Amino acid sequence: MSTLFSGDFLPRERSTPSPGATHIPGWLTLEQQHWIVERFREWARGPVPPRAARIGAYPMSVRTVCLGWHWRPYAYSREAVDVNGNRVLDFPEWLLQLGRRAVTEATGDPAAGAAYTPDTALVNFYDSAASMGMHQDRDERSRAPVVSLSIGDACRFRWGNTEGRGRPYRDLDLLSGDLFVFGGPSRLAYHGVTRIESGSAPAGCGLESGRLNITLRETGLGES
Ligand code: SIN
Ligand code: MN
Question: Residue whose CA is closest, atom 6 of ligand 1?
Fold first, then answer.
């Protein structure tokens, strides 16, 4: 990533990389980021430890801990059946409220924000070597937006199209505190993380190295 014209040097603007997808740089304050990292440390000590999910024979390079519902390729369950069988922690109220604010600000539509009821969070930790291949988020029955929060090291985020993993795509930098929301016609767009910019986490964000990404989703699975 070119750092000369990013980060603190020039203000980064809100953008809409495709209809229904919104990037809002610097949405979380450093204090909020730090507080969320403290919550992450609690979640990681919880009933289900962060684990590298296996895609076929291969472990993913990110480690994931889930709230509300446990995700595994390619299903949700209340218990982490592919880890230790324990039920995951409840989805916290503050994360529901934060998700609603995120959707309101991304869409400009308070009614859309108020209606948003995420019930799962996938919390991914990337070390400096981790990445995530191009994929769709399609294990949810609901097509409500996905809210993504980034903390720690910056990443190169590849934002693609709904047809396949290849071009056209755009590469964006997601920095600590950034919000990315995708819904509507972009809800099933392919996306991935091609690299982590080691050493770019800002002082005070709570992480000295690595990247935390939290995605909020509505599973559409109800209370079962
Ligand atoms: C994801 O696609 O689930 C995570 C994306 C990211 O880490 O920004
Ligand atoms: Mn995804």
Answer: 213
Give 22-217's CATH code, choosing from 3.30.70.270, 2.60.120.590, 3.40.640.10, 1.10.10.10.
Answer: 2.60.120.590
- Interior CA angle at 153 toward 176 and 8, to 5°? 55
Ligand 1 centroid from CA 156, angstroms:
11
Single-letter amino acid, residue 145: P
pLDDT tens sequence across 143-154: 999 999 999 999
The closest-lying atom of ligand 1 relative to the alpha carbon of residue 211 is 7
pTM: 0.96
Residue 46: which of 77, 75, 86 has the closest Cα? Answer: 86
Quote the DSSP letter at residue 19.
T
For residues 215 and 155, what is the distance between their CA atoms, to the nearest angstrom? 15
CA distance 140 to 105: 23
Residue 224 clears pLDDT 70, i.e. is over it: no
- Most ligand 1 atoms within 8 A of CB, residue of 125, 181, 188, 193 to mutate: 193
Closest Cα to atom 7 of ligand 1: 213
Ligand 1 in contact with 64 (CB < 6 A)?
Answer: no
User: Residue 219: CB within 6 Å of ligand 1?
Assistant: no
Q: Where are the domains of the chain?
A: 22-217
